[in-house]
Specification:
Its main location: secreted. It is found in: Secreted. Residues 36-113 form the Inhibitor I9 domain. Its EC number is 3.4.21.25. The chain has 736 residues and is an alpha/beta fold. It has three domains: 111-328 and 467-583, Peptidase S8/S53 domain (Rossmann fold, 3-Layer(aba) Sandwich); 329-462, Glucose Oxidase, domain 1 (3-Layer(bba) Sandwich); 633-733, Immunoglobulin-like (Sandwich). It has 18 helices and 38 strands. The strands form nine sheets. Strands 17, 18, 20, 21, 22, 24, 25 and 26 form an eight-stranded mixed β-sheet that branches. The structure holds 2-acetamido-2-deoxy-beta-D-glucopyranose (9 copies). One 2-acetamido-2-deoxy-beta-D-glucopyranose (NAG) binds at residues 354, 356.
Length: 736
C-alpha cells in the first residue's frame, strides 16, 4: 500500500510542478494560441484587491505584445480567483511558475452526460414536505439553459423570491423569469440567451425542481404526471452549453463563480469530459470546492463511460457523484415475423401498427451508393432502390444512431449487449434486438424468399429486476484517489420522461419536436439527487454539504446489481437514494473544510498552494501527516492493498456526529461475507447523551492469506434499533 501511495504522490507532483507535461505531446508548435484557465485559489481578503488588474499584470509579465486586454477572456472574481486567457505554450509555462498561480490548464469542452418516477424511489406525491422552507431553496443548474415557458416551470402558488437571493435574471432575448425560475445567465456568446436550444437543461431542471404537471406523455407513451423532486424549490439557470452539447470549461467555471455568489443552495452539473481530471485542473472540482466552503453541495454525473473499470469522471471527495440505474418502467417493443413468430426487443416506438407486414431488406441488399461495400455489422450505405418500402435488417455495434431514411419503413437492429439498455427513439418503427433474437430473424429471412415483419407500438412493462446499474454508467474505482469511493450514489437515469425544449429535435436522427421527452444517462440521475439534497436541506438547514451527503449515502437502498456484477459498489456507490430515510440518518460522517485541506496535504499538494486555495491560514498538520488519505471522514471506506501474497493490516479512523435521538447507544454490526478478511471495530458501542455530540472509532482490517479476487466488500452498520447507519468497507486488491 505504501508503494501505491508514493506512486500517486509522484504522478501528482509531476502534474503540479510542471503542468506543461500534461499536454506537451499534443503541442509541438510553441506559437499555438489556446484558451487556458489560470486558477489562483481564494480571493484575497484585502478590500483594495482588484482581481482584474492583478490578472492583467500577471499577463503583462508573460506576454510582450500590446493587446493584453484581448488575451484576457474573462476574470473569475466573485467566489474565487482566476482568469481565462489566450496563451501559447511558453506563456502558459511561465504563468504556471508565477507566485499566486495554482494551476494553468486548457479549457476543455465538456459534454452533456446523456446517452441517447418518483413513486418508485419512495418520494410519493403525499410525502411530508417542508413547504415553506423548501420553496426558499434554490437549485443552481449549470447546463444548456431552460425553456422558461414550459408548464413544468409555472410559478402558480409560489411566494415571492427568497430574500437571500442575490442573483439576477439576465436570460437575454425574450427570456423572462418568474417565481419558479428566479435567476438566469448565459455565457456562450454564440447563443445570446439562456433559452435552451439543446433540450438537455430543460430536462435536468425539471427532474430536479419541475412542478407537477398532469397528463404528460411522449407521443402517447408513458402517460402520467411529470414532477420534479422538489416541485416548490426555485431554479437558477446558468447556461454554458449550446446546441450540439458543447460546454466550454472556462464558462463552467464562470457559472460556478456566479452561482456561489448568487446564493444557490445546491448546484447540479450533468456535464463531463471523458476522463478524471486532476482536481485543480478541473473546473467542476474547483467550482465545487469553493461552493463547499459556502455550504453548497455540488452534484455531478459520474459519466457514461462504463462499464470499463475506473471510468468515473467525477472524483473529488467534496463532489457528490451520481451513477444511473434502471427504473421499474421499461419500454418493450414486439416484432412479429411473417411466420408468426414474435420476438421482444427494445425501442421507444410511438407509431402504431395496423397489422400490415412489410418486406424485410436483408443484409446482402445493402451496398454503398458509391459502389463500395457496406460494413457487415453496421447500418450504413443503403441503396435507396433496394430498401424503399422495407424494414432494414442491420447492426449497430457501438450504438451509432441510425437513420432509417431513404424511403425505408423502419429498422430491425442488432445491438451489442452493452447498449441494449438504451431505448432508441425513432420516428419510424424500429426495434433493437439482442444477438440471439437477431439470429432468429436472420434464420427466418434465410428460410423464405419474401420475408416480412411488423413492429408494434411500444408498451410499458413492469421490470421486477430494477434497479440495476446502467451498463454505460461510469464505474469506479476512483482513478485519482482510490481511497475515496466513486461513484457515491445511484439514482434513476434510464428512460426518464421530463420537460424538453420544443425547439430542440429529439435527437440527431429523429427531428420531431416535443415538450416532454425521454432521455437516459447519468445526466438524468444527477438532478434527481440534487432534488433529494434540496429536500434534505429543507428539513436540516444547518447541515454541512458533507453531512447531507453522508445522510443520503448511509441510508441508501441496495441496488440489485449490474450487468457486470463484479463491479458492485464501484458501479452503484452506496446504493439507490432513499429520500425519506435520508431525513433521519441517526449519525452523520461530517467533513470540514480543514479536513479536506488536510487530505490534500496528505495526498501531496504543495502546502503554500493549499493555503492559497483555502484562502485561510489552514496549514498542513505535519504531526498528523501519518494520517493518510483513507482517514478523511468519508461515509464509505476503500482500502487499496498491494497484491503481494502476504498479510496486510489497515486501521481506519472515523468520527460520527449524533443527529438522531439525544440519548442513544449505537452498536456496530459488521456484515462481512469474506472469511479471509478480519474486520474489527473499536469501540463496539457508541453512546451519546446529546445532539451534535461526536464519537470516534477505529476499524481494523486484517488479511492473512493469499487473496484470489480483486474486491472484497463488507459493510459496517451502526444501529440504535431505529437508525441503521450503513457504510461500505471495500478492500481493493491492486493489480500490478
Ligand atoms: C518553472 O519552474 C520549474 C521548477 O520550479 C523549473 O524547472 C522550470 O524551468 C520553470 N519554467 C520556467 C519556464 O521558468
Ligand atoms: C421567444 O423566442 C424564441 C426563439 O427566438 C421563440 O421560439 C419563442 O416562441 C419566443 N417566446 C415568446 C414567449 O415570445
Ligand atoms: C396500414 O398502413 C400502411 C402504411 O401506412 C398502408 O399502406 C396500409 O394500407 C394500411 N393497412 C390498413 C389495413 O389500413
Ligand atoms: C440515402 O441515399 C443517398 C443517395 O443514394 C446516400 O447518399 C445516403 O448515404 C443514403 N443514406 C443512408 C442512411 O444510407
Ligand atoms: C450482433 O452484434 C454483436 C455486437 O455488435 C456482434 O458481435 C454480432 O456479430 C452481431 N451478430 C450478427 C448476426 O450480426
Ligand atoms: C443466413 O444467411 C447468410 C448468408 O448466406 C449467412 O451468412 C448466415 O449465417 C445465415 N444466418 C442464419 C442465422 O441462418
Ligand atoms: C499562520 O499560521 C502560522 C502557524 O500556524 C503562524 O505562525 C502565522 O503567524 C499565521 N499567519 C497569519 C497571517 O495568521
Ligand atoms: C439523557 O440521559 C440522562 C442520564 O441518563 C438524563 O439525565 C437526561 O435527562 C436524558 N436526556 C434526554 C434528552 O432524554
Ligand atoms: C478463491 O479461493 C477459494 C478457496 O480458497 C475458492 O473457493 C474461490 O472460488 C476462489 N475465488 C476465485 C475468484 O478464484
Amino acid at each position: 500500500m505504501t508503494n501505491h501511495i508514493v506512486l500517486l504522490f509522484f504522478l501528482m507532483s509531476l502534474v503540479l510542478v510542471s503542468p506543461s507535461l500534461v499536454c506537451d505531446a499534443a503541442e509541438s508548435d510553441i506559437e499555438t494560441n489556446k484558451l487556458y484557465i489560470v486558477y489562483m485559489g481564494s480571493l484575497p481578503n484585502e478590500e483594495s484587491y482588484s482581481p482584474t488588474s492583478h490578472h492583467l499584470s500577471l499577463l503583462q509579465q508573460v506576454i510582450d505584445d500590446s493587446d493584453i486586454e484581448n488575451r484576457l477572456v474573462r476574470s473569475y472574481k466573485r467566489s474565487f480567483n482566476g482568469f481565462a486567457a489566450i496563451l501559447n505554450n511558453q506563456q502558459r509555462e511561465n504563468l504556471a511558475n508565477m507566485t499566486g498561480v495554482i494551476s494553468v490548464f486548457p479549457s476543455s469542452d465538456y459534454r452533456l452526460q446523456t446517452t441517447r418516477s418518483w413513486d418508485f424511489l419512495g418520494l410519493p406525491k403525499s410525502i411530508k414536505r417542508g413547504q415553506t422552507v423548501e420553496s426558499d431553496l434554490v437549485i443552481g443548474v449549470i447546463d444548456s439553459g431552460i425553456w422558461p415557458e414550459s408548464e413544468s416551470f409555472n410559478d402558480q402558488g409560489l411566494g415571492p423570491i427568497p430574500k437571500k437571493w442575490r442573483g439576477v435574471c439576465l436570460g437575454g432575448g425574450n427570456f423572462s423569469c418568474n417565481n419558479k425560475i428566479i435567476g438566469a445567465r448565459f455565457y456562450d456568446v454564440r447563443e445570446l440567451s439562456a433559452r435552451d436550444s439543446a433540450g438537455h437543461g430543460t430536462h435536468t431542471s425539471s427532474i430536479a425542481g419541475g412542478r407537477e404537471v398532469k397528463g404528460v406523455s411522449f407521443f402517447g407513451l408513458a402517460e402520467g404526471t411529470a414532477r420534479g423532486a422538489v416541485p416548490s424549490s426555485r431554479i437558477a439557470v446558468y447556461k454554458v452549453c449550446i446546441l450540439g452539447g458543447i460546454c466550454s470549461g472556462d464558462l463552467i467555471l464562470a457559472a460556478f463563480d456566479d452561482a456561489i455568489a448568487d446564493g444557490v443552495d445546491v448546484i447540479t452539473v450533468s456535464l463531463g469530459v471523458p476522463y478524471a481530471a486532476e482536481f485543480f485542473n478541473d473546473p467542476v472540482a474547483i467550482g465545487a470546492f469553493h461552493a463547499m466552503e459556502k455550504g453548497i453541495l455540488t452534484l455531478q454525473a459520474a459519466g457514461n463511460f462504463g462499464p470499463e473499470p475506473s471510468s468515473v469522471i467525477s472524483v473529488a471527495p467534496w463532489l457528490f457523484s451520481v451513477a444511473a440505474t434502471t427504473i421499474d418502467r421499461k419500454f418493450i417493443t414486439k416484432l412479429i415475423l411473417g411466420n408468426g413468430k414474435t420476438l421482444i426487443g427494445k425501442s421507444i416506438n410511438t407509431i402504431p401498427s395496423n397489422g400490415t407486414k412489410f418486406p424485410i431488406a436483408v443484409r446482402n441488399a445493402l451496398k454503398c451508393p458509391n459502389g463500395g461495400n457496406a460494413s457487415p455489422e453496421k447500418c450504413d450505405c443503403f441503396d435507396e432502390n433496394m430498401v424503399k418500402g422495407k424494414l432494414v435488417l442491420c447492426g449497430s455495434p457501438m450504438g451509432e444512431l441510425f437513420s432509417p431514411a431513404n424511403g425505408t419503413i423502419g429498422s430491425i437492429v442488432n445491438v451489442s449487449h452493452s447498449i441494449f439498455d438504451i431505448s432508441v427513439i425513432s420516428d419510424k418503427p424500429s426495434i433493437n434486438l439482442e444477438q440471439n433474437d437477431f439470429v432468429q430473424v436472420q434464420s427466418y429471412t434465410n428460410s423464405t424468399k419474401y420475408p416480412t415483419a411488423e413492429i408494434s407500438k411500444s408498451k410499458i412493462f413492469h421490470d421486477n429486476n430494477a434497479p440495476i446499474v446502467d451498463m454505460q454508467s461510469s464505474r469506479g474505482p476512483n482513478p485519482r484517489i482510490l481511497e475515496i469511493l466513486k461513484p457515491d450514489i445511484s439514482a434513476p437515469g434510464l428512460d426518464i420522461l421530463a420537460a424538453y425544449s420544443p425547439i430542440a429535435p429529439i435527437d440527431d436522427v429523429d427531428k420531431r419536436k416535443t415538450k416532454y421527452t425521454i432521455l437516459s444517462g447519468t445526466s438524468m440521475a444527477c438532478p434527481y439527487v440534487a432534488g433529494v439534497v434540496a429536500y434534505v436541506k429543507s428539513f436540516h438547514k444547518d447541515w454541512s454539504p458533507a453531512a447531507i451527503k453522508s445522510a443520503i449515502m448511509t441510508t441508501a437502498k441496495p441496488v440489485k446489481g449490474s450487468y457486470d456484477d463484479l463491479a458492485g459498489e464501484f458501479a452503484y456507490g452506496s446504493g439507490n437514494i432513499n429520500p425519506q430515510q435520508a431525513l433521519h440518518p441517526g449519525l452523520v460522517y461530517d467533513i470540514t473544510k480543514q479536513d479536506y485541506v488536510q487530505m490534500l496535504c496528505n495526498y501531496g499538494y504543495d502546502a503554500n498552494k493549499i493555503k492559497q486555495i483555502s484562502g485561510e491560514n489552514l496549514s498542513c498538520h505535519e504531526a498528523s501527516r501519518r494520517a493518510l488519505v483513507k482517514d478523511i471522514n468519508y461515509p464509505a471506506m476503500v482500502i487499496p492493498v498491494e497484491p503481494y501474497h502476504k498479510s496486510f493490516h489497515a486501521k481506519i479512523h472515523r468520527t460520527v456526529t449524533n443527529v438522531g435521538f439525544p440519548n442513544s447507544t449505537y452498536k456496530a454490526i459488521l456484515i462481512n461475507h469474506n472469511l479471509k478478511i478480519k474486520i474489527t471495530v473499536k469501540p463496539k458501542l457508541l453512546s451519546f447523551t446529546s445532539l451534535n455530540e461526536k464519537q470516534s472509532f477505529i476499524v481494523t482490517i486484517v488479511g492473512g492469506e493469499k487473496l484470489n479476487q480483486t474486491v472484497f466488500s463488507s459493510s459496517l452498520v451502526w444501529s440504535d434499533g431505529t437508525h441503521n447507519v450503513k457504510s461500505f468497507i471495500i478492500v481493493q486488491i491492486l493489480s500490478l
